[in-house]
Amino acid sequence: MSRLASETHDTAVPTGGARLDARSRNARGGVGPRRSRRANPLRPASLGRGLSVLLLLVFYLFPLLFLLNTALKSNAAFDADPIGLVTSPDFGNFATAWERGDFAAYIGNSILYTAAAALIGTFVSVLMAFPVSRGYLRGSRWWQLAFVLLLFLPNAIITQFQLLLRLGLYDTQLGYILIMGACIGVGPILLTGYFKSIPRELDEAAAVDGVTYWRYLFTFVVPLGRPAIATVFILQAIGVWNDIILATILLPDSGKSPLTLGLFAFQGTYTSQWGLLAAATMIVAAPLVAAYVFLQRYLVSGALGGAIKG
Q1: Out of 3.40.50.300, 1.20.1250.20, 1.10.3720.10, 1.10.600.10, which CATH number does the structure's domain 105-262+288-308 have?
Q2: 228 touches 302 (CB < 8 A)
Q3: For a FRET experiment, which of 94, 191, 251, 308 has its CA 20 to 30 Å from that of 44?
């Protein structure tokens, strides 16, 4: 009995203190559970994406930086080294370009043309896109194909000129606004894709409640499609603001010229003032850059919504 008791005592389960000692020894000796290794954040895929973004950033920013570098050079500095970095910036080029280009007289016209034509183009795009997206028109697929094909057609300048001339709207602000507002571009394509994401149950519920087509379009569809509509408006505004060809042909009166026609003041017969021309170009492009910075979230969400949901 004494021998059995001693063997039982030798093989007894360790007490709580012994367990704690064993755990502490395991922690010091590294015998504990193995920890999983952290994933390496610098994977080839992430590096490739980072390099792609960097290349795109350089691709888009390099023209602006090169334009800014040229705008800060005097004529003598530009003639000495056209592509070199500026050493003594000449900020007076911007004030000189503003005065010589007479931009103060043109900026009001550009704001009027851009706001009015962009509103008209966006309104027309909404009217065209919604019935096509819902299939209310026969051959909706053919209409969508027509929207795409219209992007590849050349601008009918002679036809537009003759149209305004016969309507008595040539060399008028109204005629130019109507022509620019008719250039809808990708507006119907983006809106058609975005309107398809709106549930059809809303159409049925509105019809049951007796809501008319036009009321439903402007009180339900337009608020729901605000991101895409904002995107279309921004794209329309960019096209109108940057226009220089149609403005030269349809608005011979300098008092009705937009801001872009002020760039012709820096082009001579035998030489051009490249520093002042670059400064004037930055003055013309500055409002668009500022608008994009503040409205880029609408542009991205609307473009992605129209492309993916369609």
Answers
A1: 1.10.3720.10
A2: yes
A3: 308
